Amino acid sequence: MTFLRQGWHQALAVGLSLGLTMPILAQGLSPSSPSLPVMPVPEPLPIPAAGALEGETVHVLSYALFTLYAPAGSGQARVRAQMIEARLDQLLRQYAADGLQLKVIATDDRGAVLAINGHELVTVTQYELKANGASQGSSIAKKWASSLRKVTNKGPFQDTYVTFVGLPPLITVSGVNYELSRRLTEDSGLFTTDGTRQDNQVIFWRDGDKSPLPEVYMLNHKRKFVVYNRQS
Fold first, then answer.
1. d(CA 42, CA 96)
2. CA–CA distance, 58 with 88 (Å, rounded to integer)
3. Spatial separation of the C-alpha atoms in residues 202 and 219, rounded to whole Å
4. Measured between alpha carbons, how far is 62 from 83 in angstroms, rounded to an integer?
5. Are the C-beta atoms of residues 227 and 217 closer than 8 Å to each other?
6. How far apart are CA 88 and CA 100, in angstroms?
7. Are the CB atoms for 54 and 103 separated by under 8 Å?
8. How many angstroms separate the CA atoms of 135 and 130, rounded?
């Protein structure tokens, strides 16, 4: 079976192009998490003629990663890219702090899947093969993985998905609001706590500071103290 056959194979091809959750016969690939967003499915469209494609670029933060394609005028490329961006954000928030594992898995009909820590992120379809003039989806997926790896070293990526991931932007202590500063501070041995928590995180302050406290602190995923500044 090839991507260019007609009939019900068209529906399969469009389903793959939308990144829908489908069984992938590849060992070690986990099914989609039920917490990930579900996007509406447009009606299947015919396989386009040569060149009749439109693209939409997938971003993380402000960084362009790769471009997905669909039949020109269908709007499916945009729907697909939005869904992949939402899924990517959730996977990064779940796994980036402990280290990302990117894997390219070849599928039937020359396609490929890019997976993050065992979870399917995106499928390379016949549309990407045609747009890139490629014969195997794995070569495209490897380029996508390389783009994502480069972005992981950027400062904004580290701030969003590693250093401050999971921390609340605003906390309240004794009726006073404190805002996440996106600064780290060294443990000087002066931090103390009475066990007060917010969002299941323990709040610390410097021993000897008087109320209202000038700063408070929370531990991030790497057990580093993050500063919260008192709002004026």
1. 31
2. 10
3. 8
4. 16
5. yes
6. 12
7. no
8. 8
Nearest alpha-carbon partner for 229 in 219, 216, 218: 216
Q: How many CB atoms lie within 10 A of CB 74?
A: 18
DSSP H helices in the chain: 8-17, 76-95, 126-132, 137-151, 155-158
Q: What pLDDT score does 47 carry? A: 54
Tokens of 123: 């499928």
204: tokens are 């610390």
> What averages of pLDDT result for each successive group of 10 residues across the chain (232 residues)?
34 38 40 45 49 92 96 94 96 94 92 95 94 95 97 94 94 95 90 93 94 95 94 88
Rounded CA gap, 9 and 111, in Å?
A: 14
Radius of gyration, CA atoms only, the chain: 23
**Selection from 89, 77, 153, 157 nearest residue 121 by Cα:** 89
